[in-house]
Amino acid sequence: MSVAVIVLNKSGIGTVAGAGAVCCVLAAPDGVSLLSGGKDCSVMQWRLQNGERLRQIRMGKVAVSSLACFASPLQAGVSKGFLLAVGARQVNVWHLPSASTEKDEENDSESRRLGKFAGHKERTAALCFSPSGRCLVSGGSGEAQLVLWRMNSISSDLGALVAGADGKTPS
């Protein structure tokens, strides 16, 4: 079964073909793109204005079950884009460029995986960044637990992206 992503634009409602079976959808913090995760084990970033697929990130062999985004207030000085947490059996954290940033489909050097968190026995059913972006909370499907992850524990690059207002890396 295939499900299309529906995009609202100035001329009305349109559909985006080729989205595959969609498990989760999230508006990106750049305000101009939408993210979808699906049973095809990938995340797609779509331009809201015209439905253009901007990038596809393959996540391995497990369906993408949850998504969360965070845009740091200091990010403009560090790198244009946002953080994306992708839930499957483990949680992968990526840095994605804004939809207003030029893309390169063949060599998507602007999208980079910063690290991963593993700890759930089953798929990750829910993800949420803290308001500061310093922590990520995940909940596993069929598990009676929430896991709180410190973002600076997976990558030194991440410390700079989620630094506090004083520019210091959170502890």
Brief write-up:
The protein is mostly beta strands and 171 residues long. 6% of the residues lie in helices and 43% in strands.
Rg from C-alpha positions? Answer: 16 Å
Query: How many strands, what sense, and barrel or not for the largest sheet?
Result: 4 strands, antiparallel
Q: How far apart are the termini?
A: 45 Å
Structural class: mainly beta
Instruction: Please indicate the percent range of residues in DSSP E strands (runs of 2 or more).
Output: 35-45%
Number of H/I helices: 2
How are the SSEs ordered, and which strands pair?
Blueprint: E1 5-9, E2 12-16, E3 22-27, E4 33-38, E5 42-47, E6 53-58, E7 66-70, H1 75-78, E8 82-87, E9 91-96, E10 112-117, E11 124-129, E12 135-140, E13 146-150, H2 156-161
Antiparallel strand pairs: 1-2, 3-4, 4-5, 5-6, 7-8, 8-9, 9-10, 11-12, 12-13
Task: Describe, in plain words, how this protein is organized in 3D.
The protein has 171 residues and is mainly β. The protein contains 2 helices and 13 strands, in the order βββββββαββββββα. Strands 3-4-5-6 form a 4-stranded antiparallel beta sheet, with no helix packed on it. It has a 4-stranded antiparallel beta sheet with strand order 7-8-9-10. It has a 3-stranded antiparallel beta sheet with strand order 11-12-13, with no helix packed on it. The longest helix is centred in the C-terminal third of the chain and has 6 residues, at 156-161.
Question: What attributes characterize this protein structure?
Answer:
171 residues, mainly beta, four-stranded antiparallel β-sheet, 6% helix, 43% strand, disordered N terminus
